[in-house]
Amino acid sequence: MNFNVNENNIPLQKIAADFLTQKNVEFYVLREDLIHPEISGNKWRKLKYNIEEAKSQGFKSIVTFGGAYSNHIAATAAAGNQFGLKTIGIIRGDEVSNSTLDLAVENGMKLKFVSREEYKRKDSSEYSNCYVIPEGGSNTLAVKGCAEIIENIDIDYDVICCACGTGGTIAGIIASTEKKVLGFPALKGGEFLIKDINQLLLDYDANINKDNWKLKTDYHFGGYAKVKPDLIEFVQKFKKENDIELDFVYTGKMLFGLYEMVNNTDELNNKTIIVVHTGGIQGNKGFEERFGIEL
Fold first, then answer.
1. What phi and psi values does residue 250 have, to the nearest 5 degrees?
2. Which residues have CB under 8 Å from 84's CB, separation 6+?
3. In 10 A of CB 289, how many CB atoms?
4. Residue 105's CB: how many other CB atoms inside 10 A?
5. Residues 71 and 83 both lie in one domain
6. Whole-structure pTM over 0.85, yes or no?
7. Of 112, 137, 162, at which residue does a domain stop?
8. d(C-alpha 164, C-alpha 142), whole Å
């Protein structure tokens, strides 16, 4: 199938800084954010085989779930628009309008707002006439897509890192490499993801039993969509120095954490590190709207 996206030849961009040189650390960003302007990074990786499956089963509509600022909601709407599938987004919370949801609507998504209690009780069976993709897009087919991320890495490396929301991206990376994998949960109390990631790996391949990964749970900045001045300053400075825009929910927190680890510990000394940029830049507009943050 021709998806009209750039999922091959994604560049590895080297990051140069004195503190990296002092620790003998080679640091590269895998620019998955360049896959597509609206279906970027892991959003595309997760949706790719789900879209293929929906079409092969003859579905005309996709239903999925998320919050009012969900990158996954926006990406699913864009994918549906591009590949001829109607999309329905079940949105947690009161009815609102913002740049993320506006983008989804522009791409043809029908939104249904439900209370948080109703959202917790969501039952996919009521959408039997639609292809159902879970919140965040993480399922077995998402793991299959994310397992292809490492195909664009053409150098030897010691550690590969990614941000974590629902666990599908890191599960795909774990499944596809024997190298050390570090995950940086965006959610407070991200330890719960260990169980979810293990289940995704089991569902993907029952023979997978790996201990080459761990989560770094200290860089959530208070929770999923929380920001603090030091994170804002870091993201702004990183863009200025490297010409790479990060998002505040995922990649900004991950890079902040990695910089702190290199500066303050010996864990990553003498390592070559790959950082997966999972996209999600459209979400920055929401922070600009709510908090007046400029990038």
1. -120, -75
2. none
3. 13
4. 15
5. yes
6. yes
7. 137
8. 14
Mean pLDDT of the chain: 93
As for how many domains the chain has, the answer is 2
Together in a domain, 20 and 66: no
Q: How many residues comprise the chain?
A: 295
Instruction: Name the token pair of 141.
Output: 């087919």
Going through the chain in order, the beta strands assigned E by DSSP cover: 12-15, 26-30, 61-66, 86-92, 110-114, 131-132, 159-164, 180-185, 213-215, 272-276
242 in a structural domain: yes
Across the range 30-40, mean pLDDT stands at 94
**Pairwise CA distance, residues 37 & 245, whole Å:** 13
Q: Is the pLDDT of residue 1 over 50?
A: no
pLDDT digits (tens, 9 = 90+) for 155-213: 999 999 999 999 999 999 999 999 999 999 999 999 999 999 999 999 999 999 899 99
Tokens for 136? 């965040």
Contact between 204 and 144 under an 8 Å Cβ cutoff? The reply is yes
Q: Do residues 99 and 282 lie in contact, with contact meaning Cβ atoms separated by under 8 Å?
A: yes
- Torsion, Cα 41 47 49 55, to 10 degrees, reads -140
Which residues on neighbouring strands pair with residue 89, listed in sequence order? 64, 111
Q: Pick from 71, 120, 125: which is nearest to 92 by CA?
A: 120
CATH of the domain at 129: 3.40.50.1100
Q: Which two tokens stand for residue 37?
A: 């302007």
In the block, residue with structure tokens 């990649």? 251
- In this predicted model, what pLDDT tens digit does every residue of 206-225 receive, in sequence order? 999 899 999 999 999 877 77
Beta bridge partners of 185: 164
Q: How far apart are CA 261 and CA 266, in angstroms?
A: 8
